[in-house]
């Protein structure tokens, strides 16, 4: 049996996007939570908890974008113009938070402004990513392989809800990360925030899950038609399991379990999107097979990716291992 | 139609603006990463605390620069899709995999080991820390390799076919990656990055020598930078000359624009040292020329014929003004660098390299020269490629996204405001870091003699004291 290269690549791109979402998700979440930690010392600890790893986390976004251009150029060339404004806002948000992070250590008087920049940049990046997902779910107007809609099509009540869902969800990831990495009062506050953002996240996942089948008939059949519903049902069941693990971990003061449970919520939501989308890569407009680049491109990059992605995962894991454990307040990284 | 043209112009301005800002940071971080690897290696080898101090000094500067390079680079990777989607769709199958390899082989490597290189010395020990520092440096070079392969392919495309939809289909990856201008462009750009760093380091060293000639760390960094200037500048001039010959072979119209030759010269072309291009009249006003020299440089023959822009169809001629001036700025800076490098050799021989105030002042003035030269070179080559995105095959006007001009205009304004705010602040903080003298702790101890207690030496500003205290925890 020949390998279906476009599907393999769709899987790799999906993996890169998921890796980005959960990894940069927690460090964006730390930024989103800044207003709840007004004390300078806490903010120093929070930024130090992500200082050694945020850069690697953000690289997955470049792999997602660059990979898309390489193996699904039509998708890259139609989705990005369709999401022009959210993408530009996301990039500017990422610019702000990426430097704010470094600059806040370089000044005493000005650090409050960079703290605001870090919070605002993180929040805007998260919200616009949610808008982008929502816009993709609701569909993009494509005629003759080119974007044919207006430049405000992405803004609807549905996309605002998905924007909020991703923002609060990232805050949950950030709170459970801080619960994992910190001690004392900072950790206690993170735990309370994780509980609150966990409840809201689950509520918003519910709203989006119930709303989206009514946007597109394909989604409806996938989730409620027979026999696919039988297989799709494992997603909500496992979501319930993760929700329980999150609640249980937080109430019994576990450190790693809530973070893993929050990651689980994201992974399952992402799988849910995949179930809705497949075999489309842009719902209703382009299938994975239609959008694929010539085989020579798929093979050329796959040769490297199949070796390099495991290597990347290995040394990224090592880098996390080096900086494992609770943040020592006396051992800052700046 | 007018609407479409303004969207194209705005998109071009936006791309030129964001890529110029971005390019400054890798041009500096490529050289700095290698410099850090050398300093850390010297520290491990000689166990001389001066090298450790210099490593820590430049490490902080590298961290700030690298952060700015990362965020401005992410913008670039998405701008191909937002503003140049037709180009992305048609050429994506060729250039996308090269950029994919850049991410897989370089970005992850740099990002994965950066944390350890910056903050991990105590946690992983000297050997693994050294490995991380070297890996980061190698990562920056691998990154340059792929991105220059992409860029070179856009100048000298080969190894593809074009399908019924007008899309580029890769046929021979070896030919695509190692396209004709790639080796020259790579060498020229990497040497430029090393020189940029050398002159920045040299200027910081010179500044501190002007304040205190006895500062050993300042002496070391000045000396290392001047060795680089003296050795690499001649190599760079040679590489630039070879790159020029390659451009003449594959992009002769660009050479004509750079040299300012509107007309063909069948019996030997003069070198136009200076003048003012007059695009309307298609000539160079107030030209100062040296007869036959252009033919001698480009073809090694005084009487060799050289094509001017009139030899090319009117709709395939690049604009002259920008490549003409940018090229002269780049070359002028190159020779100024050579002069400083040779001067430093002379000073070394005369044994006054650490006391020659004029040399230090010259090095200080030359501090930003590498950045200016790099940008000038970039403008020369990129504007010289116009009116094409893929040279000879795909026009810039055909590459644009179907995005409306107001959207491009609004985002351009947003980029300008945010970039000036953010990177302006970044440059401000960098200068503040440069201003700190690279002094060892034991030097500080010496300073704490009675004269300090008498209050003659004012301490650093209040807010710096606070932050310095915070930093030392991490060291």
From TrEMBL, chain A:
Signal peptide: none annotated. It is found in: Cell membrane. GO terms for cellular component: cytochrome complex; plasma membrane. Its main location: membrane. Pfam families: Cyt_bd_oxida_II (PF02322). It comes from the Bacteria. It is a multi-pass membrane protein. GO terms for molecular function: electron transfer activity; oxidoreductase activity, acting on diphenols and related substances as donors, oxygen as acceptor. InterPro entries: Cyt-d_oxidase_su2. The chain crosses the membrane at residues 12-37, 82-100, 112-137, 157-180, 192-211, 223-247, 259-278, 298-323. One of its GO terms (biological process) is aerobic electron transport chain. Keywords: Cell membrane, Membrane, Transmembrane, Transmembrane helix. Belongs to the cytochrome ubiquinol oxidase subunit 2 family. This is Ubiquinol oxidase subunit II. It comes from Devosia chinhatensis.
From TrEMBL, chain B:
It is found in: Cell inner membrane; Cell membrane. Its main location: membrane. The keyword Transmembrane applies. It comes from the Bacteria. GO terms for biological process: aerobic electron transport chain. GO terms for cellular component: cytochrome complex; plasma membrane. Residues 464-475 have a biased composition (Basic and acidic residues). Keywords: Cell membrane, Electron transport, Heme, Iron, Membrane, Metal-binding, Transmembrane, Transmembrane helix, Transport. The chain crosses the membrane at residues 20-45, 57-78, 98-120, 127-148, 186-210, 222-239, 325-346, 358-379, 407-431. This is Cytochrome D ubiquinol oxidase subunit I.
């Amino acid at each position: 049996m020949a390998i279906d290269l476009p599907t393999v690549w769709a899987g790799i791109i999906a993996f890169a996007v998921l890796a980005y979402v959960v990894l940069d998700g927690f460090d964006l979440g730390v930024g989103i939570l800044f207003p709840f930690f007004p004390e300078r010392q806490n903010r120093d600890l929070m930024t130090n908890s992500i200082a050694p790893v945020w850069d690697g986390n953000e690289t997955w976004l470049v792999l997602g974008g660059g990979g898309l251009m390489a193996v699904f150029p039509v998708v890259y060339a139609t989705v990005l113009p369709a999401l022009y404004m959210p993408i530009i806002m996301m990039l500017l948000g990422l610019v702000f938070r990426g430097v704010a992070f470094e600059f806040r250590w370089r000044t005493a008087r000005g650090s409050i402004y960079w703290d605001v920049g870090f919070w605002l940049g993180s929040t805007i990046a998260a919200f616009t990513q949610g808008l982008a997902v929502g816009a993709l779910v609701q569909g993009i107007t494509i005629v003759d392989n080119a974007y044919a809609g207006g430049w405000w099509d992405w803004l609807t009540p549905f996309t605002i809800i998905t924007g909020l869902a991703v923002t609060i969800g990232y805050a949950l990831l950030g709170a459970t990360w801080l619960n994992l990495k910190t001690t004392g009062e900072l950790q206690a506050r993170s735990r309370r925030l994780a509980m609150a953002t966990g409840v809201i996240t689950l509520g918003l996942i519910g709203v989006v899950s119930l709303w989206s089948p009514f946007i597109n008939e394909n989604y409806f059949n996938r989730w409620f038609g027979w026999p696919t519903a039988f297989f799709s049902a494992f997603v909500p069941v496992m979501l319930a399991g993760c929700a329980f693990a999150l609640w249980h971990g937080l109430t019994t003061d576990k450190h790693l379990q809530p973070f893993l449970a929050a990651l689980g919520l994201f992974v399952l939501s992402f799988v849910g999107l995949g179930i809705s989308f497949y075999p489309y890569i842009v719902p209703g407009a382009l299938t994975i097979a239609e959008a694929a680049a010539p085989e020579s491109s798929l093979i050329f990059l796959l040769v490297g990716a199949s070796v390099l992605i495991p290597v990347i995962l290995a040394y990224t894991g090592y880098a996390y291992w080096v900086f494992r454990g609770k943040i020592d307040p006396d051992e800052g990284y700046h | 139609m007018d609407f479409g043209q303004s969207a194209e112009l705005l998109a071009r301005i936006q791309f030129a603006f964001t890529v110029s800002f971005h390019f400054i940071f890798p041009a500096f971080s490529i050289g700095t990463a290698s410099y850090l690897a050398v300093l850390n290696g010297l520290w491990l080898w000689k166990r001389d605390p001066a090298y450790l101090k210099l490593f820590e000094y430049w490490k902080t500067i590298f961290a700030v620069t690298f952060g700015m390079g990362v965020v401005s680079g992410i913008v670039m990777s998405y701008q191909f899709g937002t503003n140049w989607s037709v180009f992305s769709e048609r050429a994506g199958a060729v250039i996308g995999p090269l950029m994919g390899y850049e991410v897989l082989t370089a970005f992850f490597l740099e990002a994965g080991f950066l944390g350890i290189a910056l903050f991990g010395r105590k946690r992983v020990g000297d050997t693994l820390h050294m490995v991380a520092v070297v890996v980061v440096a190698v990562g920056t070079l691998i990154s340059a390799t792929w991105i220059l392969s992409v860029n070179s392919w856009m100048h000298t495309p080969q190894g593809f076919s074009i399908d019924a939809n007008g899309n580029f289909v890769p046929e021979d990856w070896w030919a695509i990656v190692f396209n004709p201008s790639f080796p020259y462009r790579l060498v020229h750009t990497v040497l430029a990055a090393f020189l940029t760093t050398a002159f920045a380091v040299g200027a910081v060293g010179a500044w501190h020598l002007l304040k205190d000639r006895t500062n050993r760390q300042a002496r070391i960094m000045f000396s290392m930078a001047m060795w680089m200037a003296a050795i690499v500048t001649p190599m760079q001039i040679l590489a630039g000359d070879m790159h020029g010959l390659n451009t003449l072979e594959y992009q002769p119209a660009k050479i004509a624009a750079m040299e300012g030759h509107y007309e063909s010269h069948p019996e030997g072309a003069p070198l136009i040292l200076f003048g003012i291009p007059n695009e309307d009249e298609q000539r160079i006003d107030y030209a100062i020329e040296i007869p036959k020299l252009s033919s001698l440089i480009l073809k090694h023959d005084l009487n060799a014929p050289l094509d001017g822009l009139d030899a090319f169809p009117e709709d395939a001629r690049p604009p002259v003004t920008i490549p003409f001036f940018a090229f002269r700025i780049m070359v002028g800076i190159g020779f100024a660098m050579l002069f400083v490098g040779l001067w430093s050799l002379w000073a070394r021989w005369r044994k006054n390299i650490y006391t020659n105030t004029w040399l230090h002042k010259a090095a200080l003035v030359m501090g930003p020269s590498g950045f200016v030269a790099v940008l000038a070179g970039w403008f020369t080559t990129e504007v010289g490629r116009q009116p094409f995105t893929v040279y000879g095959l795909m026009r810039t006007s055909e590459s644009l996204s179907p995005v409306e001009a107001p959207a491009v205009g609004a985002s351009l304004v947003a980029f300008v405001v945010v970039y000036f705010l953010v990177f302006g602040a970044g440059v401000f903080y960098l200068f503040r870091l440069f201003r700190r003298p690279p002094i060892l702790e034991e030097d500080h101890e010496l300073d704490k003699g009675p004269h300090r207690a008498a209050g003659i030496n004012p301490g650093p500003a209040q807010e710096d004291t606070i932050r310095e205290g915070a930093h030392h925890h991490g060291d």
